[in-house]
Structure to design on (226 residues):
């Protein structure tokens, strides 16, 4: 059974700092991995999707990496801003139907 | 059409009542998913539609839950005889067939059962 874990559960950093969020999964047989952002009480916003054959994806200040063999992904946020404060969720696609298995999320607070 | 929409955004009901939620996916997306999210947890998969066919259901979807997508466009999720444990955020997502199958989520419906 696929399990997805995100550590830490919460993180507080000063504005301007570079930071890394971690995601691990127990079964390397995944189709892809998606990182999402969720603001309090809102839906999920897709940030990056990495196919199982890829090593990394970049979008602006965000860079996501994938090491399928070790069951790990990281989300790197450069020059963090208070507007980056949110919960970040990673999810792995485990079947042809597209079913996603989510981690519990890391809640990030960026202090001005 | 700029994204996935859900209605209502909030629903408060008394235990034992029936509730129905609606999801309108991105117009060209043929795949539609329902997830449930409780406080402090990641979303959990409930069910999946490809066009109008419901092809996968989670064990979380008890017989009090039913979902439909009658014309392969919008979908409804009905909960009968609601229980306090049903209180959660119900999220809908849609995607296109293909190798990426990137899922785009709606704003969710927050259900509170009193």
């Amino acid at each position: 059974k696929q399990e997805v874990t995100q550590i830490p559960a919460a993180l507080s950093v000063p504005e301007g700092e570079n930071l890394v969020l971690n995601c691990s999964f127990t079964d390397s047989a995944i189709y892809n991995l998606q990182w999402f952002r969720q603001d309090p009480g809102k839906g999920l916003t897709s940030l990056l999707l990495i196919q199982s054959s890829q090593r990394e994806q970049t979008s602006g200040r965000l860079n996501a990496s994938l090491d399928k063999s070790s069951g790990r992904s990281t989300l790197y946020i450069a020059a963090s801003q208070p507007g980056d404060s949110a919960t970040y969720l990673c999810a792995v696609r485990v079947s042809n139907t597209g079913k996603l298995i989510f981690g519990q999320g890391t809640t990030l607070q960026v202090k001005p | 059409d700029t994204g996935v929409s859900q209605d209502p955004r909030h629903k408060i009901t008394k235990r034992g009542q029936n509730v129905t939620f609606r999801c309108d996916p991105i117009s060209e997306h043929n795949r539609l998913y329902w997830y449930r999210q409780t406080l402090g947890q990641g979303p959990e998969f409930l069910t999946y539609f490809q066009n109008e066919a419901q092809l996968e259901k989670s064990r979380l979807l008890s017989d009090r839950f039913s979902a439909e997508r009658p014309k392969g466009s919008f979908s409804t999720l009905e909960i009968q005889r609601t229980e306090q444990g049903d209180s959660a955020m119900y999220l809908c997502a849609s995607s296109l067939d293909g190798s990426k199958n990137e899922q785009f989520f709606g704003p969710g419906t927050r259900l509170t059962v009193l």
Q: What stands out?
A: The longest strand of chain A covers residues 44-51. The mean pLDDT of chain A is 95. Chain A has no helices and eleven strands. Chain A touches chain B through 26 residues (CB under 8 Å).
